[in-house]
Amino acid sequence: MKATTIALAGLLALSACSQNQVPAGQLNEAASLPPAFNFSKLGLRVLTSVINQRQGTTATLYGNDQARQAALEGAGAAQSGEVLALLTWRQQPDPNWFGARIPGALQSLELLRTGPAGAGRPAVTYQCFTGQNLALRADTLHQQERIAYLLAQKLAVLP
Amino acid sequence: MSTVAHPFRRLLLPAGALLGAAFVGIQFIHPPLENPPVTGDFQAPVAVKNIVQRACYDCHSNQTNLRWFDKVAPVYWQVSDHVREGRAGLNFSTWQSLPPDAQKAKLWEAVNQIIAGAMPLSEYTLAHPAAKVSAQDVAVLKQYVASLAHNPPADSAKLNTAARQYRHWQPAAAKPAAVPVAPNGFAFLPDYKNWQAISTTERFDNGTMRVVFGNAVAVQAIRDKHINPWPNGTAFAKVAWDQLADAQGNVSPSAFKQVEYMLKDDQKYAATKGWGWARFKTDKLVPYSKDALFTTECISCHQPQQHNDFVFTQPINH
Q1: Is there a single domain that holds both residue B127 and residue B50?
Q2: Of B226, B196, B230, which is closest to residue B211 (Cα–Cα)?
Q3: Has residue A23 got a pLDDT over 80?
Q4: Do B251 and B287 belong to one domain?
Q5: Range of B236's domain?
Q6: What ipTM was predicted for this assembly?
């Protein structure tokens, strides 16, 4: 009898808990940026998006007004004060739509800034942050390649 | 005992008789449900066709096969409503009148409705267990639709469209004077491109790629993890482009296909699940459909996400 009472009380408590629970929604935690990085404070706008089917990655390119203007004027039109940011994720199947892939684990954030002109062309600084915590990568391998790639991106049409 | 039961029995008999008479009476309220001619039946490999016929045709074709218990009012009234709505949304008997892209889109959507458990309707399979779709059936359907998805290399017509759009679209170019308005009164929101991206999607089912933008209210809601339900004032804009692949396997946006909006206002849009819906097509931003009833398409596709406030996107906190 006592056991039944305890079991009943337990069941009641459980059902009370599940009723009070607020549905959490579906935040994509794995793909989210560490809040401390304050990415949105950069105040950048979406310029385009790139998928690499061989590597299974998806990326979004952001830029400030100068970067946007330079991209509109075409490759090689880099000017000072540009900020470009490329966020790259591993892809995962969309759990809500068979036929789609969405961002999975955050892979990297590449940040490019152009400074005042040196010898005719503006100086470029490039940083690469990797992993879920966006740790700054020390090595400079492939930097020139990545800078050229980022500066060559064309804007997506957003009417 | 019998002295207690007696008054009940006295009441029960006429009440039962009355109910019986009413039941017989309502059988005469029987709006006809015709089977119009089949003008262009759905074609697919036998294994696929068998599943679709068995699970979908009673409501999604002109070959509705009502069993005797479906024809008894009041069940009949609900059944005939379901069939009418079902045919309006998807009719396999007029399949050949749809353009190939629309056929594919309908099939992918149907398979996703089945995967999500939204279709076939549970009240239908309860009375018609043969219509249930097994895990094996789902695998057959998934394999079939996947076989329809192939991204053809960019043809010159597509490239020309993309190039023309890009030339035409320059911030300097004159903006259209009139703001396009969807048939439900939803006006195009040009500011979406200044909102934050909250996710992206590669759609290999239809060869598009998408960026989902959220306004300031949406971004704050994501930060606060207050996204089910989303607060009033939340707005999403989902932009779709054709995919353009280069030799290195990089896929970038080609022609702009459309922008679709969801705007939350549980009072104003109470009749459409608390959301205002809109779609503007091509870079000319042509409102989708001439009829405000287009929102029933939006809602039926988003129905499987009803427990996520009708939102498919799993937002990313930036």
Answers
A1: yes
A2: B196
A3: no
A4: yes
A5: 156-170+177-308
A6: 0.86
